[in-house]
């Protein structure tokens, strides 16, 4: 199969994928990815101002699950984030749940993913306040996959090394290589999440997997015995490092096209990393239908925000954040790309001018016509 893209795999097994889809969001994602940058979404016809060369440009699907559509979003999002990130070191925390909770989370994605954000942010801000006296913040992103596209919901959090004191008159710095005791944070996170699940459970708002004990207290005791882990990585040195990391990592989809190395009518082979053994160049081959089934588990519910901001980074706390900039003797970054058309953003970021004729390399491509969804282009 030429190209070895996710769109190729889905197109080759379109009947299975659409039949496997359990909701309109999954159906739309599959359809969008297959038809991204084709006549299905319409496009434009441009003519070179110098040599008269004609070229067709197809529109993107803009679906957040499409690997083709993430790069431009990533550039603009990172640029906008620069206006928010404080000029201090940041820590990277990863909040995980026991694998045995996966069934509950998958059956109740809209509710449970929201509870995960709420529990992690409450635990972080509570422990930070108790141990440092500071009001902190975080940027959090939900990932639902592991390296082999298995179902593994977890949160990545980027946390500034400090926060405002109770009077909002001083910035309190944490230790250079230590943010919080992770064992304490893990315990508070577990308690917060289980309490939030209890409220939904008692209110009969959750679909309970058949293998779970219907008595919440019994369920709770079983899961308190499981390993709950919050990982803490080395701190980032400054805003530039954290922003580069965020751009490459947080806006990912379940699998990129570059990781797909081979595909045929029956199987798909892709690269993955084993973080436990530090092996970074492994390959896995799955039955094509199994590959598609795994990918579809990571299509989020309609309208769900997978990136959220808490504490001093929350939108409602802009005044507090500006106070932090002042206390740190700095000023917020003004976004460079805000309001600019996408071709100009790409030119400024990469040096590639999409408007230059790819034939004569001299003229500018000027749009002379457009065609609507599903119609073939004409020249």
Please describe the topology of this protein.
Blueprint: H1 6-12, H2 14-20, H3 24-35, E1 43-48, E2 54-58, H4 70-81, E3 90-96, H5 102-107, H6 109-132, E4 137-145, E5 151-160, E6 162-164, E7 171-173, H7 182-202, H8 216-224, E8 230-232, H9 239-249, E9 260-263, E10 267-274, E11 279-287, H10 288-296, E12 307-311, H11 318-327, H12 342-350, E13 365-371
Antiparallel strand pairs: 1-2, 1-13, 3-5, 3-8, 4-5, 4-12, 6-7, 9-10, 10-11
Helix pairs in contact: 1-3, 4-9, 6-7
If you had to describe this structure to a student in words, what would you say it looks like?
By secondary structure, this protein is of the alpha+beta class. It has a domain at 84-254 and 298-327. Helices cover 36% and strands 21% of the residues. It contains twelve helices and 13 strands. The protein has helices at residues 6-12, 14-20, 24-35, 70-81, 102-107, 109-132, 182-202, 216-224, 239-249, 288-296, 318-327, 342-350; strands at residues 43-48, 54-58, 90-96, 137-145, 151-160, 162-164, 171-173, 230-232, 260-263, 267-274, 279-287, 307-311, 365-371. A five-stranded antiparallel β-sheet has the order 8-3-5-4-12, with helices on one face. A hairpin with a 3-residue loop joins β9 and β10. α4 (70-81) packs antiparallel against α9 (239-249) and α6 runs antiparallel to α7. The longest helix is centred in the first third of the chain and has 24 residues, at 109-132. The chain is globular and about 70 Å long. The two termini are 30 Å apart. The mean pLDDT is 90.
């Amino acid at each position: 199969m030429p190209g070895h893209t996710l769109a190729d795999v889905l197109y080759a097994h379109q009947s299975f994928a659409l039949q496997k889809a359990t909701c309109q969001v999954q159906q739309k994602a599959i359809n969008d990815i297959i038809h991204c940058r084709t006549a299905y979404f319409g496009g434009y016809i441009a003519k070179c101002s110098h040599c008269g060369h004609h070229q067709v440009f197809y529109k993107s699907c803009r679906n957040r699950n499409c690997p083709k559509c993430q790069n431009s979003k990533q550039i603009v999002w990172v640029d906008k984030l620069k206006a928010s990130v404080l000029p201090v070191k940041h820590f990277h925390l990863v909040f995980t749940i026991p694998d045995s909770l996966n069934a509950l989370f998958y059956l109740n994605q809209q509710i449970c993913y929201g509870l995960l954000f709420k529990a992690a942010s409450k635990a972080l801000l509570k422990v930070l306040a108790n141990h440092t006296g500071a009001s902190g913040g975080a940027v959090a992103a939900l990932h639902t996959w592991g390296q082999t596209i298995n179902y593994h919901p977890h949160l990545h959090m980027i946390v500034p090394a400090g926060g405002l004191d109770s009077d909002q008159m001083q910035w309190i710095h944490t230790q250079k290589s230590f943010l919080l005791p992770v064992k304490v944070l893990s315990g508070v996170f577990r308690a917060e999440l289980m309490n939030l699940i209890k409220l939904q459970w008692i209110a009969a708002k959750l679909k309970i997997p058949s293998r779970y004990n219907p008595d919440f207290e019994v369920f709770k005791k079983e899961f308190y015995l499981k390993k709950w882990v919050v990982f803490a990585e080395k701190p980032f040195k400054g805003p530039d490092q954290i922003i580069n990391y965020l751009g490459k990592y947080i806006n990912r989809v379940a699998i990129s096209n570059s990781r797909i190395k081979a595909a045929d009518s029956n199987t798909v082979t892709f690269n993955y990393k084993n973080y436990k053994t530090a092996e970074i160049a492994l390959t896995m081959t799955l039955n094509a239908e199994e590959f598609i089934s795994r990918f579809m588990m990571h299509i989020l519910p309609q309208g769900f925000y997978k990136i959220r901001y808490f504490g001093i980074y929350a939108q409602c706390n802009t005044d507090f954040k500006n106070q932090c900039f002042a206390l740190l003797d700095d000023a917020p970054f003004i976004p460079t790309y805000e309001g600019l058309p996408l071709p100009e953003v790409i030119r400024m970021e990469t040096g590639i001018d999409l408007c230059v004729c790819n034939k004569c390399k001299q003229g500018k491509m000027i749009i002379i016509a457009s065609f609507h969804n599903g119609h073939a282009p004409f020249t």
